[in-house]
Amino acid sequence: MTQPVSAGADHSICLFATIRASLPDTLAFGYYHLNTGIDRLYLFFDDPEDPAIGALEGEKRITCIPCTGAHWQDLVGDLPRAKLSINVKQEANARMAVQRARQDGYTWIGHIDSDELVYAPGGLRQMLAAIPPEVDIVKFPVLEAVPENQPVQSAFRELHFFKRARQAVPKNRYIFLDPRERLPYFFHFVSYRARQILAGVQGCPIVFQRYIKGHAMGKSIARTSAPIVSFRSHFPIPLERTRMQINLFSGGTILHYDFPDFDHWLTKWKSRFATIQQGVVPMKLSIHRQRQFDEFIRVYEQGSEADLQALFQRTLLVSPRARRILTRMHLATEIHLPAAVFTPPPGE
User: Fold this and answer.
1) Engineering a disulfide at 289: which of 22, 207, 285, 296 sits with its beta carbon 3.0 to 4.6 angstroms away?
2) Which residues, other chains included, contact 227 with Cβ-Cβ below 8 Å and sequence gap of 6+?
């Protein structure tokens, strides 16, 4: 367990998230981050009556913010409900979180989703202490959890096999790579592609398809002293025409539990479909993600549940043989998180 530090201390860290998850998953998410080096969580509850708000009331290092009508009125004014997409909500909440983090005196701030965990086996605070002072942003690449062909009760506890995403530089002219990392980034890119080819030659064709099914860009944390105003999904939003330096190879990662099992996969896509049917602007998807959704809708409207099961298995499951090849090529890894990190922190 990592001991917390007070706001204002060197490398104090806060995270924020817009939450809509089950009570057990929300508690596990919160306790994990408190136990592994996060000093403050700002949790924005999309459901203002979420039972987790009461359950976390006694946690001194978690600030629960119910997203009531008054909350949205304060942040976005009279924006029609149909235009209040998850992207708009997250960016508005991010703006508020950045302001709160600065007021509360934290050194670093990051944005993640409720199906993600920050993973830094060497210690998050130690990792950040090694970041050069001129670096404003630290990017964490993705390790994407691979589902099993059976229901899971707690993805954080039950899924252990992860595919590695390639590091990627943001396509933003105001965020530039730390010059010391240009050569390592080039070698990383070449090595990753070479290992994909070798894995494919050995009989693992999934590397030639869209290998990472969720987002491959990762998440990032930024210094609160950096010239940022808010966050989008993966990176902070800089002040207009302000350049910031980013670090890619800190040693931290994001564990992304995108589709833990068939029921989660079915529920997520059905929820998006229902949102569109209601006339609400849904979360903007990447091109490859939109293709996944389009394929789901085609099968959902024309096929049976067996067809949906077949689609899930074909697109998301990884065979034991493929797992061995991917592990050997360092394109995947196993991570077993100790059960204790999902329990209330000592002394809280």
Assistant:
1) 285
2) 136, 238, 239, 242, 244
